[in-house]
Amino acid sequence: MKANLMFRDKDFDFKANPCFGKDALVADLELKRVLSNMARGDEIISAACGAALFCPLQSTEEIHYRQEILRDVFQNPDAIRQLYETTVETEKKRRSSWHWLSSTYLSTTFSSAIELMKIYTEMLMELRLVADSKLFGFQSEGFRNLLTMLQRELDDDYFAEVNAHLNDLKDGDGMLVSATLGNYLQGIHYVLRRKTRKGFWWRWRFAPSFTIAPRDDAGAADLGNRRDRAINEAANALAQAAEHMEGFFAMLRNELAFYVGCLNLADSLQELGMPICFPSLFSSSSKDRSWQGLYDVSLALTKNAAVVGNDLDTADKQLYIITGANQGGKSTFLRSMGQAQLMAQSGMFVGADSFSAPIRCGVFSHFKKEEDTAMKSGKLDEELARMSKMADHLKGGALMLFNESFSATNEREGSEICRQITKALIENDVELFSVTHLYAYAAAFLGEKQSQFLRAQRLDGGERTFKVVPGEPLQTAFGEDLYHKIFGQAG
Length: 491
Fold this sequence. Notes:
Layout: H1 22-28, H2 31-39, H3 43-53, H4 60-75, H5 77-96, H6 106-134, H7 141-153, H8 156-169, E1 176-181, E2 187-193, H9 200-204, H10 217-271, E3 280-282, E4 289-294, H11 297-303, E5 310-314, E6 319-324, H12 330-345, E7 354-358, E8 363-367, H13 379-391, E9 399-403, H14 411-427, E10 431-435, H15 439-443, E11 451-458, E12 464-470, H16 479-487
Parallel strand pairs: 3-7, 6-10, 6-11, 8-9, 9-10
Antiparallel strand pairs: 1-2, 4-5, 4-7, 11-12
Helix pairs in contact: 2-3, 2-10, 2-11, 3-10, 5-6, 5-10, 6-7, 6-8, 6-10
C-alpha cells in the first residue's frame, strides 16, 4: 500500500539531501521560527516540513497536486489530525510492545511478527473507520485514492480473515506440524499446518504422543529445531508483512506530518489576522512576478502581531534592486520574498493576499554577516569565499538574494565588485533581488529594461511606512533620520 500524499507516483523521502545552502537560507530568511511553529515540538513534523521546504518542487504538476491535497486538509482539519494521531499511536504501540523482527531466534521472530501484525491490524481498522466517515469531505486525487483504497482493501471480510489467521498461528494451544520420512528415517519437508476450528484436537487425540523430560535439554533443542524448520516459511512471510505494515504507517505518518505542520502555521497566522493564499507558479522560463500583501511570516510570528505587506506587479524583469531609507523594511521585504518562493515550491500556501511567480531551480541567499572575532580573514574575503562556493552550484533559472552584499569595503570598490558579480549572474540567466546602499552599484543598472528598482518608502517627515514601492535609487539612505530619532532634534 502507498500513501502518495506528497507525490502522485512516488514516495516522499524526508531524509533526502536538502538543497545547497540550507543552513544559510534558514539563518538569512529566519525560517527557524517558521519551522518551529509548524512543528510545535513534534520532531516528525519538523523533519517532514524541513524536507519539503528545502527540496523545492520543479514542476507545476507536482505543485498543483500537493496544493489540491492541502486544500482538502484545510477543509477537513479534524480528520487530518485524527489520521496523523493514529499513525503516531501505532508507532508508540509498536515500540512499547517490545516485539522485534531482528531476533536471532526464529521462534521469537515468529511470535513477534504475529503480535506486531495484531497491532497493525487494529490500527488499520481505525484508519478504515476514518475513511468510512470522512471520505465524502475530500475532493483531491491524493486523499480520495488513499481513503478509497482503505475502504476497498480493508473491508470487514479482510479483517475477519486476518484475525482468524493470526489467532490460529498464535501458539496458545499447540502447533500442528507435519513431516515426511527421508533417508535413514530422518524427518524432511516439515510443514506448519493450519489448525481447523472444529475437531482439531479430536483428530489427533489418539495419535502417538511423546513428552520431553524436564531435564532433557538435547531433546528440547531438537524439538525446537524441528519446529523452526516447520515455521520458517510462515515466519518469513509474517516478518515481511509486518515490515510492510511498519513502512506503510511510517510513510503515512511522515506525509501527514507535513500537512499537520501546514495546519499549525495557518492557524497561527490566521489568529494574527494575517492572510494566506495558494500561489500561482509559472514555468521557469517566465520572468513575471506579482503579489499583493506579501509579508514576512517569521516577523509576524516573532512579533505575535500583524505586520506590513507589500505589493508588486512586474513583467520581463530579471534584476530587482532595492534601495532606500535605513530601517525602512528592505531586508524584511527580501526575507518575505525568499520565504514565499520556498513555501510556494514546497506546495504550501504563502503569506500574502495573492502571489504569482516563476518556478526556480534553486534559491540562494548571500546576506551581510555580523562581525565574527573567530574569522581568520577580513569580512570582504569571507563574503567573496561564500560567493565562490555558491557559484559552483548556481545555474540558469536560479534565484539569488543579496542583502547588503560586498559592502565591507569602500563605496567605489564595493560597487564595482557587486556590479561585476550582478552582471555575470544576469548574463547566466540567474534572477537577482539585491538590497543595497551602494548608490554607484545601483545606478550602474539604470535604464536597463530587465531592471526593476524598488525603494523603501519614507514620508516627508522622515517616518517609515515599511512599504517597498517602485522608485529609483537616491544618493542618501537618510541615516540622519535615525540619528534624530535616537538623540533628538538639534537645538
